[in-house]
Design a protein that fits this description.
alpha+beta; Conserved hypothetical protein from pyrococcus furiosus pfu- 392566-001, domain 2; six-stranded antiparallel sheet; 15 helices; 23% strand
């Protein structure tokens, strides 16, 4: 069962750090190299100096340099540790893809990392060794859980609403607007006794931060081996986590569209190959609207020299995708696109390096202006399907989910001893 507890967080002191717009950032893995350099130039306290470190001026490794910078922040008083265990409430205000103002509520706490064989925290993505090794080196150097694992929990009866509503009782302790236009507000509050027992009987689901979670578990294991500490007794037995309810009206999953750089078939050949499996119809209006109305098993395809085409699957998923993966995976539109359309219908390799686009117009422009062969608009994966794949132990294809906004980095951090 999950064990959740308050903690003594590390936080920036605005009286020393100044405007936190130039300090707080999204997670490391959604910051491009160009954005990293721009953010780092904004402030010597910007979190990119630590979460995306560069070698030091005296030849230190990026990780040693990050540790030195982080230590300097603490020594200067810009970063201070709270004196008593607390919960931390987060309100994120943002505009969705249609321009509507949305609000998502979360809270930060320390979560005990599961032992081998425990299934109280489930993920839905594969992890890769290179980013894992990078995060592990950074954790060793800083001995801090810098970025939160984004966890989803169930609260259909709004049992924790009273706790979350405490953010309405006072001004926030921290406020910043991150570069993607999200207003981030954080409250430090006294521990809420209802949180731990409410979550104790639940399964938690990783929305974002699979590499951070894997890193935390590996760091815990190596520190236990090094210190001989009994399980569950040390700060490194825990990770920083941000918790959001499945039922939160601000929980938003964006689609990530696919851009195919090359295809052996011309446009007519692609249509002929798709026809036995899909109903095909040209899209007279807005492609994103047509896709939304079409429901599951649908895509919009952009091809060179052709009008946008709506594809609606009419075949049998098991027949096209095979039965080596379970129903939860076969139900995914991204699985139907990757294995079904790209591999089995169009004959493209399984390791094809697709490019990704967050907005429909980016995908379309990649074909019409950028020389890509094809692009496919996909529907966002519903949270229920993410949960089903996690419970079935069926990792989803890469970039199947994009939770927006991400949990910010730098609002609060968890020391690991």
């Amino acid at each position: 069962m999950p064990e959740i507890k308050p903690f003594c967080g590390l936080r920036f002191d605005p009286a020393v750090a100044g405007c936190l717009d130039a300090v707080i950032t999204p997670p490391y893995d959604v910051i491009s190299p160009e954005q990293r350099d721009r953010l780092a130039a904004d402030s010597p306290l910007n979190m990119t100096h630590v979460i995306l470190p560069k070698p030091g001026p005296a030849g230190e490794s990026p990780y040693d340099h990050a540790a030195a910078v982080f230590g300097g922040w603490r020594a200067s008083g810009a970063l201070k540790q709270d004196p008593a265990p607390s919960h931390y409430l987060l309100r994120q205000t943002f505009n969705d893809l249609e321009g509507r103002l949305r609000v998502r509520r979360a809270f930060f706490a320390a979560v005990k990392l599961p032992e081998a064989g425990e299934r109280c925290i489930l993920g839905h993505e594969r992890t890769f060794d290179k980013p894992f090794e990078d995060r592990l080196l950074l954790t060793r150097a800083t001995r801090t859980s810098l970025g939160a694992v984004f966890l989803l929990y169930s609260d259909p009866s709004a049992a924790l609403d009273g706790f979350l509503n405490r953010m309405n009782e006072a001004p926030p302790d921290l406020a910043a607007t991150t570069f993607e236009g999200v207003r981030q507000e954080l409250w430090r509050v006294d521990p809420e006794p209802a949180v731990a027992p409410f979550l104790a009987d639940q399964t938690l689901y990783i929305a974002d931060g699979h590499h951070r979670f894997r890193t935390a578990c590996a760091y815990r294991d190596e520190m236990r081996a090094k210190t001989g500490a009994a399980p569950g007794t040390q700060p490194f037995d825990y990770a920083l986590a941000g918790f959001v309810a499945f039922e939160d009206p601000g929980l938003e999953v964006h689609a990530t569209h696919r851009v195919v750089p090359e295809c052996p078939l011309d446009t007519a050949g692609v249509r002929a190959a798709l026809a036995p499996w899909f109903d095909l119809s040209e899209v007279p209006g807005d492609p994103a609207t047509a896709l939304r109305r079409a429901g599951d098993g649908a895509f919009v395809m952009f091809a060179r020299g052709a009008a946008p085409l709506l594809l609606k699957f009419t075949g049998d998923r098991a027949a096209l995708l095979g039965e080596d993966r379970g129903p939860a995976w076969r139900d995914l539109d991204v699985a139907l696109l990757h294995r079904g359309v790209l591999e089995r219908i169009l004959g493209l390799p399984a390791d094809l390096a697709c490019r990704f686009a967050q907005r429909p117009e980016e995908a379309r422009a990649a074909v019409e202006e950028g020389g890509a062969a094809l692009a496919f608009l996909v529907r966002a994966t519903p949270p229920a399907q993410i949960r089903a794949c996690a419970e079935a132990g069926e990792p989803m294809p890469q970039k199947s989910t994009y939770f927006f906004p991400k949990l910010c980095t730098g609002a609060v951090m968890l020391p690991l001893g």
